[in-house]
Amino acid sequence: MKKAKIIFWTTTILIFLFEGVMPALTSQTELAKEGIRHLGYPEYFGNALVVFKILGVLALVIPQVPNNVKEWAYSGFGFDFIFASISHFAVDGITFEGFFPLIILLILALSYIYYHKIEQYKNIAS
Question: What is the DSSP string of 60-83?
Answer without folding.
Answer: HH-TTS-HHHHHHHHHHHHHHHHH
